[in-house]
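Possible regression after last week's pipeline update?

I re-ran a chain I had predicted before the update to compare outputs. Posting the input and the new output here so someone can diff against the archived version. Not blocking, just want to make sure nothing changed silently.
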Amino acid sequence: MTDSKPSKKRKIEDECRVFNKEWTDRYLFTDVRVKAVCLICHDTVAVFKEYNLKRHFQTKHTNFGSNLSKQKLQRKATDLIKRLRQQQTMLQKTSSLQRNATKASFVLANKIAEQNKSFAEAEFIKDCMVNAVNVVCPEVISKVEAIRLSRRMIVRRIDAIAVDIQEQVLTASVSFQWFSIALDESTDIQDTAQVLIYIRGIDKNFGITEELLSMESLKDTVTGRFIQQCH
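New output (post-update):
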């Protein structure tokens, strides 16, 4: 005869993985992205366990609201939740503005590189943009001013774009079924000859990849061995 044992299966509620809304009034916590956030100090508790929330409240905020009635404490918790959501909305807007400004900086840096323009022209472009937007739609002038277009920043953006393109070409080259190399000649601002090495590859689905593979300075007589050493 075997003894019947209670099932060891536990519900999510029993494991305290679900935030209990009553904890807001008791310990002034709310749930934000699967974490319990203290409405007073904004500390977070990763595990939804009443013991953790209660310990935090009694350790750090034991005297908070001691002179308030239950109804007033509930209203206080509601006000704190509204304030927290307003702060989160503001942070999200700031983060979105920074992402868009960074993206715009990359777009303009890429355009400057494509047109072979001086990096210093980026600051002139920004001045033009700010002046134009200030006349057409001044309410968004702060968004334009957030775009970083200093010469040093443009150099960093173009370097990052170059690294990304190189990684994309290397990744695509693994699936090339056929490829060809083309050479061209150019000069830099000091009239030093440059050899431009282009690659064109085709994969099994006939997708074509064509990109600048490398650029090397030509200081002496160019030979086939030099070209091989460049790549």
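Follow-up from reviewer: compared with the archived run. The longest strand covers residues 176-187. Marking as no regression found.
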